Amino acid sequence: MGTLDGKVIIITGASRGQGEAEAVLAAQAGAKVVVTDIIDGQHVAKEVGGLFISHDVTSSEQWANVVQKTLAAYGRIDGLVNNAGIWKPGGVTQATEAEFRQIIDVNQVGVFLGMQAVAATMIAQKSGSIVNISSVAGMRGLRAIAYAASKWAVHGMTKTAARELGAHNVRVNSVHPGFIETDMLPQGIESTIANQVPMQRTADAKEVGEVVMFLLGDAASYVNGAEIIVDGGFIA
Ligand SMILES: NC(=O)c1ccc[n+]([C@@H]2O[C@H](COP(=O)([O-])OP(=O)(O)OC[C@H]3O[C@@H](n4cnc5c(N)ncnc54)[C@H](O)[C@@H]3O)[C@@H](O)[C@H]2O)c1
Fold it and tell me: Measuring CA to CA, which residue among 91, 138, 132, 120 is closest to residue 224?
């Protein structure tokens, strides 16, 4: 028996990085996995025996398509991992308006649209788990003004949605990764790791994925509106 047996899980930004790791872990735990991404993810869908849907999280029309195709294929939606995201450094004196708006659109509006797209199905089912991937940048200041703004918004939207959807047995939680070994990991962070991460290392994407699996599963049945930090102690 897997911990996600029979569950249908949508994971955005799952063609690589943490989303891909989560797709693999979810399938190993027994879930049917819907891989979505703006880049091709057929290879991941093939690996996990699931479905790939081309998807830009900033488009409400494309969210409707993801929900419709998932329901047509599997008949229900038990989990959504709002994982897709983009990163750009730059403080308040460096970031451009265009960059700021683009990051907010993907990281913040994309998460809002995702929660909104699956809510009706989960409410009707009287069950569901939404996991929003924020960041340590959504818990402290960081010289990446747009990224930090978007990840603080994900943190706050998670609390708000948890309060709204909890009555329907739909749980909403956020995960806050630190320095994870994916294409997004900033270059030149060795001194930060050495001086500021108590565990003195970066993390494999699976180490975030395991926490996401917990939140998706029934073992987390009373965990709602929580934030789980996965950062080796960076912001402790
Ligand atoms: N890597 C880190 O150190 C780190 C730390 C904290 C938080 N995070 C967060 O973790 C999540 C996963 O990032 P990752 O580390 O796997 O990086 P990644 O760049 O490998 O993966 C991000 C994925 O999101 C997809 N994506 C980007 N824009 C999209 C859009 N508009 N619509 C759909 N998909 C889109 C990309 O194509 C990519 O596959 C992100 O939300 C990121 O902000 C990462």
Answer: 132
